Amino acid sequence: MANATDHLWMHFTRMASYSAGEVPTIVRGEGAYVWDAQGRRYLDGLAGLFVVNAGHGRTELAEAAAKQAGELAYFPLWSYAHPKAVELAEKISSLTPGDLNRVFFTTGGSEAVEAAWKLARAYFKRTGQPNKYKVISRYIAYHGTSMGALSITGLPGIKSDFEPLVPGAIKVPNTNFYRAPEHGDSPEAFGRWAADEIGRAIEREGPDTVAAVFLEPVQNSGGCFPPPPGYFERVREICDAYDVLLVSDEVICSWGRLGEYFGAVRYGYQPDIITTAKGITSGYAPLGAMIASDRLMEPFLTETGMFAHGVTFGGHPVSCAVALANLEVFAREDLVGHVRANEDAFRSTLEKLYDLPIVGDVRGDGYFYGIELVKDKTTRETFDEAESERLLRGFLSTALFQAGLYCRADDRGDPVVQLAPPLIAEQQHFDEIEQILRTVLTEAWARL
Ligand SMILES: Cc1ncc(COP(=O)(O)O)c(C=O)c1O
């Protein structure tokens, strides 16, 4: 739309880049596809923003929203409940691993992360360890943009404008096996090393000052890194040894994205807290949640105890109704099982791209993949800043979009093309993704 930039301030957007051209405006979605204002169709290779897990155009989710708004549009969860929040909290608890039975609703992922850090601090204050307030996370990992969540985020480029941030957010190396600084010949030894880096950071900071470790099951930004073997098992041991909470930040990795309802289940570890959002409603309404273990709620169950935190729209009735309807679709169509049944096909279709000189690494799990682009396959040499600017920001995203594929060319770490289609995607969609990538990446290579 020509006037899109007059008043609309888009998120993480170089607004000036649209001064000469039109902002792509998406007006409709159906299944795995979306359409723009000119009627052009695109394969939604990113499920919006890792959100539309059940796919676009589900009128039953829209109807669930309308019905709830007609019945009870809004009531807060501040000392009151409404039926859909109660029902959804119970439903979520039945799907979480172990005793993660306490659901604190938010409106999105950053708020869930924020709530988790606050809970970790408040929990230790109430259990006699008031100095435990720091958090550990990985370099490059994205955990959100509110000041607490941004402090946990490990991307200097999106933080520097807002310094000083919240103190006590410590960073450890990422789990990038493709560029492993140590143990590049053994995923097991690398996993052990990367986990032990968390233990070393806790020792350096002082175990009596560290409250929590925040990790995504598959680390998204800049990479799409599945955990190396043994990584989470060792992290769990370290957290137990130092009495540090393990927060599984599953804002992307839950609700079937990795072929399970929760990423922690996929990789077989037990977190103390799960943070989630996005796919919980498949995007038909905004919702997030912090899901805590029974143990973490205990100190707040005294006569005057209270977790002094909340947001007006957390657990909005319409969003909860939509989430319940979404989970009904999941169950009826076995979307989680569909991902498990098709993930190998998705992987092997993407791996066909290895014959292109620019494709260095194809990695991921479930319906969540990153394709790392390199200048030299043998040496794994990456692009310099000018090449990245020309190739990724200047060419790739737009060219892929023009060719009919909406996905993301991300260079917040090393340059990757990220793919996370709606969970209904199947072979015909994988093939379409592969063919468009093949054409555009071939052209990108020629332009280098
Ligand atoms: C792992 C993780 N945590 C937190 C967030 C922040 O979520 P939101 O954008 O809903 O605030 C994101 C967003 O992509 C995320 O991927």
Question: Layout of helices and strands, plus pairs?
Answer:
Elements: H1 4-7, E1 26-30, E2 33-36, E3 41-44, H2 47-50, H3 59-71, H4 83-95, E4 100-106, H5 109-126, E5 134-138, H6 147-152, E6 169-172, H7 187-205, E7 210-215, H8 231-242, E8 245-249, H9 263-267, E9 273-276, E10 288-293, H10 294-297, H11 317-333, H12 335-351, E11 359-365, E12 368-373, H13 385-402, E13 405-406, E14 408-410, E15 416-419, H14 427-447
Bound molecules: pyridoxal-5'-phosphate (PLP).
Pyridoxal-5'-phosphate is lined by residues 108-110, 113, 142-144, 216, 220, 249, 251-252, 277.
Summary, kept brief:
The chain is an alpha/beta fold.
Write up this protein.
Strand 11 (359-365) and strand 12 (368-373) form a beta hairpin. It contains 14 helices and 15 strands. 49% of the residues are buried. A seven-stranded mixed β-sheet has the order 4-10-9-8-7-5-6, sandwiched between helices. The chain has 448 residues and is an alpha/beta fold. Helix 3 (59-71) runs antiparallel to helix 11 and helix 4 packs across helix 11 (317-333). It has helices at residues 4-7, 47-50, 59-71, 83-95, 109-126, 147-152, 187-205, 231-242, 263-267, 294-297, 317-333, 335-351, 385-402, 427-447; strands at residues 26-30, 33-36, 41-44, 100-106, 134-138, 169-172, 210-215, 245-249, 273-276, 288-293, 359-365, 368-373, 405-406, 408-410, 416-419. The model has no long low-confidence stretch (mean pLDDT 96). The two termini are 32 Å apart. Helix content is 38%, strand content 16%. It is globular and about 70 Å long. It has two domains: 62-333, Type I PLP-dependent aspartate aminotransferase-like (Major domain) (Aspartate Aminotransferase, domain 2, 3-Layer(aba) Sandwich); 334-447, Aspartate Aminotransferase, domain 1, CATH 3.90.1150.10. The structure holds pyridoxal-5'-phosphate.
